[in-house]
Amino acid sequence: MASDTAPKVNGANGVGAVKKPEGDVLHIIDSRTRQHYTVDVHHNSINATDLKAIKAPKDEEHPEYQNEQGLRVFDPGYSNTLVSESKITYIDGLEGTIQYRGYSIHDIIGKKKFADLSYLLIWGSWPSAEEAQKYQQRLNDVPVISENVLNVIRSFPKNGSIIGMMIAGLSALQSDDMDAIPAHAAKNLYLGQPKNVDEQVIRVLSSLSMITAAAYCHASGKTFTPPRKDFSYVQNFMLMTGLVDESTGEPNPRYVDVIERLWTTVADHEMTC
């Protein structure tokens, strides 16, 4: 941001020259000081920290205003504040639009499996047939969660929070492999080592499904069933939670398709929703 009256503004490296506006800008005139400022507009938003350059003399009657520290943004409940920028997902609830990596959800639901979508979200492209098969196999090769993890989950009251059970289960999972924790191993394990990162992503993705299923079984009084090597991600989740047909002992394909579609809809449902 630049001020027409001030010769310099504070930059990232201290005091730097006033920058000229580039692209879209918001013009601001501070009635307290009569100074004019320009703020860069990027993707229909401004950087709130740019407003810190808009300063006024200290208000002796109201020092808590901290005028001299720069203008602040008051937004209770973050009703009009962007806190992150996603290169993965675009969601517009008012228009009913969801895009993953630029692909419309209408071109995904019923056509792609959830495991394939997770590959897209994590690695940025759809897997080939060979990559999809290898990816599913790697997910299925993750060891079943240990008794230590199961015991932590089962230590909760059956009517306790399933989310709490999942969080505790993940903590127990971490403790099962302390050598995978950089602070414990006292060395860099993941920075600049994508192979190690990918291994842990797959481990956690598969283990989280087991932990969630185990928590559900504990809360509902069902028996946790270990996953099968020949099942898909969703099929195994339903198997582990006991959601199977009595006649076959396997998940009903119709219900598998419903879960595939549901999980696709909410696959990235945090900051972007």
UniProtKB/TrEMBL annotation:
InterPro entries linked to this entry: Citrate_synth-like_lrg_a-sub (IPR016142), Citrate_synthase (IPR002020), Citrate_synthase_sf (IPR036969)
Gene3D superfamilies reported in the protein's UniProt record: Citrate Synthase, domain 1
Gene Ontology molecular function: any one: acyltransferase activity, acyl groups converted into alkyl on transfer
A Pfam family the protein falls into: Citrate_synt
The protein's name in its UniProt record: Citrate synthase
Organism: Xylaria grammica
